[in-house]
Design goal:
Structural class: alpha+beta
CATH architecture of the largest domain: 3-Layer(aba) Sandwich
CATH topology of the largest domain: Glutaredoxin
Shape: globular
Strand content: 15-25%
Strand order of the largest sheet: 1-8-7-4-5-6-2-3
Number of helices: 8
Distance between the termini: 27 Å
CATH superfamily of the largest domain: Glutaredoxin
Oligomer: single chain
Number of domains: 2
Largest sheet: 8 strands, mixed
Order of helices and strands: HEEEHEHHEHEHEEHH
């Protein structure tokens, strides 16, 4: 019965049969697919945004000494830098970083998959490297984490609030391509949320990207995070498994349309 008081003392939704629940779920699925397609279209627009050349030679402190913004790429084409607040004056110092930034750090997925798409994620704070190393060890975080030594945070809009800045490298030339801050930044952390804000995107064949952008078939490049270096090309068995999965998804989609 609708509006029954549930165990939490709130007005719960209607309790219905399996058939009615399935119908309601399919109705919601239509709206979710619309949202997904709109999100894909927005990412396609993002890949066509203008770039800004980075002219200033920024310097960071890393575990082995001074490094440049170019060094943060680790040889890859794309770089995402998250400005995390861990420094004197921030709530939690010196034992912890900002609670919000720390929650975000806990969400970061295994970086091997992101690296496989020619993308590097790095964190940057104003804390000294010794404190960063101590914090990473305490919290179990493994992302590269650098110390800001100049106006990098102010120049890229993250001196007062957290944010992800995205950069692209063409040889030694660096371009700023995007910024995610405020609401929306809290959802970052997955391979897909990171790739969707980069200029090259997920680099899969279904995406709407400018001509010449690198793209490969979906699923085929996926691997165990400890196996990318050992297996340079897609595994044929995995190709067959993923092909069968895609075919099953298509059949289910067609059946739902006819229902």
């Amino acid at each position: 019965m609708a509006n029954d008081k549930g165990p939490l003392g709130i007005n719960s939704p209607a309790i219905v049969s399996r058939e009615a629940w399935d119908a309601a779920r399919l109705e919601m699925l239509v709206k979710e697919k619309e949202l997904m397609r709109a999100r894909d279209a927005l990412a396609a627009q993002r890949r066509r945004m203008p770039w800004m050349a980075v002219e200033k030679p920024y310097v960071f402190e890393g575990p082995t000494g001074k490094v440049s913004l170019l060094d943060l790429f680790e040889g890859r084409r794309q770089l995402i830098v998250y400005r995390a607040f861990f420094e004197p004056g921030v709530f939690g110092w010196p034992d912890h970083a900002c609670r919000g930034c720390s929650l975000g750090a806990d969400q970061v997925s295994h970086l091997a998959h992101l690296n496989q798409r020619n993308t590097t994620l790095a964190y940057a704070s104003r804390a000294p490297q010794a404190d960063i190393a101590r914090l990473k060890a305490r919290m179990g975080w493994e992302m590269p984490w650098y110390t800001v030594t100049d106006s990098f945070d102010k120049d890229f809009g993250v001196d007062e609030w957290h944010g992800h800045n995205v950069f692209f490298r063409d040889g030694e030339r660096i371009f700023r391509t995007y910024l995610v801050n405020s609401r929306g930044d809290e959802a970052m952390g997955t391979v897909w949320s990171y790739l969707d804000i980069t200029p090259l995107g997920r680099q899969e064949a279904w995406e709407d990207s400018p001509t010449g952008y690198p793209q490969t078939p979906p699923y085929k490049w996926w691997n165990w995070h400890d196996n990318y270096d050992a297996e340079a090309t897609p595994n044929q068995t995995w190709v067959e498994v993923s092909d069968a999965g895609e075919a099953a998804f298509r059949r289910e989609s067609e059946n739902q349309k006819r229902a």
